[in-house]
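Lab meeting, item 3. Inverse folding demo.
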């Protein structure tokens, strides 16, 4: 028996937010994602093998206790990073690392009592923001569900189910947009923001929906997916015709949210990655990004002011090119460059998206590349 999401949802007046000093902030865009150069060694992978890539990633970012440190943000940890690291551990058949990461995550982030993770943890301080980041919860649940399937672990399947049901209870219904996935449990609704509800479309981790449907089939993931993809397609904002990182759904037409710059930037770059990785690929949604990058010779994406279609800056790290290459593969069947089998591990976020792009290439787009480094 399938559970309709309407059993969980409240009217669109009760979404949620991350509050720091009284103001909503992004749980994921912490400052230095757009900082071009930070102190620390340049660690570049030379041999495109799965074992070497994963080993270098672990050495650079994952501590012995299972905590993934965001080295560009004061070495904090967050639910996003733990979810990404756990997922990569499963993809690389590294159960020992997975279990350490899940153990640390369960002990240190699942402190709210509602099966959602507190999103931010700081060294010497512990949890400094108990609000959740919905994408982090989905990534952790996705990783647990994959681990359960890969290693036949019923306990991890149950953990994933509990998180999945907690996320489902956050979903809100809007007559104009269907099912809306809030960025967190508090604050992005119209009572908290003048142009709320506000969403971050990169928090709809579409391939996670695919996996969670296996272990929580009572939840109508198909409807949530359909609404999420339709919002992406409708969010062709401004002259650029691209979604901004943060989108207001206050009116019948999506608009850039007021509390952040109207940029297609370091959050929205994940939207085509998830679309290309999803089982139910939507060609119209992917084409939004494929058309933008069709003639980009160096594959380097740019941050775009969507209102005026103005280039703000280049995405500063070369690893972001992997998302562009994956998108062009998915839309045009274009070969994935052999040079992008190498990964630069200087910075947590871009190198993680690079590794995930290789995984998506392997699982859903293998026709565009030969020996893909990140394996199942």
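The presenter then showed the designed sequence:
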């Amino acid at each position: 028996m399938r559970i309709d999401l309407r059993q969980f949802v409240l009217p669109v007046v009760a979404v949620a937010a991350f509050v720091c000093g009284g103001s909503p902030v992004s749980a994921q865009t912490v400052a230095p994602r757009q900082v071009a150069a930070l102190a620390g060694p340049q660690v570049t992978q030379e041999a495109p093998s799965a074992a070497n890539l994963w080993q270098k990633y672990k050495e650079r970012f994952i501590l012995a206790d299972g905590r993934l440190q965001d080295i560009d943000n004061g070495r904090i940890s967050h639910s996003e990073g733990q979810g990404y690291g756990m997922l990569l551990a499963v993809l690389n058949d590294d159960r020992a690392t997975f279990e350490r990461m899940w153990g640390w995550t369960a002990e240190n982030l699942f402190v709210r009592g509602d099966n959602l993770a507190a999103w931010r943890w700081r060294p010497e301080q512990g949890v400094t923001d108990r609000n959740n980041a919905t994408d982090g919860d989905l990534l952790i649940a996705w990783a647990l569900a994959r681990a359960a399937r890969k290693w036949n672990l019923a306990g991890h399947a149950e953990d994933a189910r509990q998180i999945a049901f907690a996320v489902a209870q956050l979903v809100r219904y809007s007559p104009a947009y269907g099912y809306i996935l809030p960025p967190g449990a508090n604050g992005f609704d119209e009572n908290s923001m003048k142009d709320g509800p506000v969403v971050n479309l990169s928090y709809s981790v579409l391939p996670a929906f695919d996996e969670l449907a296996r272990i929580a089939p009572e939840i109508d993931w198909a409807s949530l997916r359909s609404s999420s993809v339709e919002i992406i397609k409708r969010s062709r904002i401004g002259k650029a015709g691209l979604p901004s990182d943060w989108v207001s759904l206050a009116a019948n037409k999506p608009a850039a949210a007021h509390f952040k710059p109207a940029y297609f930037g370091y959050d929205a770059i994940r939207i085509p990655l998830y679309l290309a990785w999803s089982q139910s690929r939507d060609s119209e949604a992917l084409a939004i990004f494929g058309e933008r990058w069709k003639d980009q010779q160096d594959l380097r994406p740019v941050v775009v002011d969507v209102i005026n279609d103005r280039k703000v800056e280049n995405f500063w790290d070369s690893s972001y090119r992997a998302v562009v290459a994956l998108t062009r593969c998915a839309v045009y069947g274009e070969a994935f460059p052999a040079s992008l089998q190498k990964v630069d591990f200087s910075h947590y976020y871009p190198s993680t998206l690079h590794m995930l792009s290789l995984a998506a290439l392997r699982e859903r787009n293998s026709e565009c590349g030969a020996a893909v480094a990140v394996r199942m």
